[in-house]
Amino acid sequence: FINAQDGRMNGTVEQGAWMEINEINKTTLEFGWLSHISPRSTVKWYRGASSIGIYPTGLTINGVKSDYKDNLESKGIAIAGVTYSINKQIKFRLWDHWVENIFNTVFLQADGEFSLEGNRKIFAGVQYIHQQAVSDGGNADVSKTYFDPSQSANIYGIRAGLKNKKTTIRLNYTRITNDGRFLFPREWGREPLFTFLPRERNEGLGDVNAITANFLRNYFREKLLVDISAGYYGLPDVKDTRLNKYGLPSYYQLNFDLKYSFSKFFDGLNVQVLYLYKLGKGNIYEDLRYVINKTDMQQINFVINYNF
User: Which segments of the chain have a pLDDT < 50?
Assistant: First the structure.
């Protein structure tokens, strides 16, 4: 959940302590304590709670503007993870993110990959995520809290696919139940859901059914990666603020992503072209607030990165 999300000039970085233990057979243990975060597109360091709310805060479950920016109290973020490989084919991961005084997130994922004839492989994965408030969710005032203690979140995901040396095909499904909103600060990273597509998230939503398909293929000795992805996201009504924090309608999304990595003299230079189209599906009640910069739009990104 906490990652670089480096779709900007400055990716997200963290300050704290981290320990990794690899002495146990087939098992990796990781523990961390994060005290400060510098969110992407910023150059400042913020204490963990102060970094929440730099991006839009949306509405409370009661439909009024959220006011948790600069009104949350937390000493930091504790993270613990275990990765266990049964064999070369099957791996389990269990992570816990505990944000002191605000909320807790448990993440469980199992992945399997099995060889077929002709250098082909079949793979599959399942996910489960559970979230609940810690204490009063950050502030005793409901309008100023981040995670309303009356809610919890449960997410189920499944993935299956086929790949060979050059091509990968994936089919993914995510279900966020109507127990409450899935919440995680957008300032800290992008969500690890199987159905995630660049330039959109399901954070802030409950009662979601999402399905996506991905086609990836390498060309020119793996220098060019072509990624074509499409998905449908069935979301709650835009006026259902209990489950729709940002007033986002249901939508279709189509992505074309081209990435070229140079070599030799230009080693480290990468060029990316990303095109996306989003088509709104849900009822917007003739109110363009639910459309502008959300759906019925196209976007083109041209990115040049030099890594050294």
Answer: none
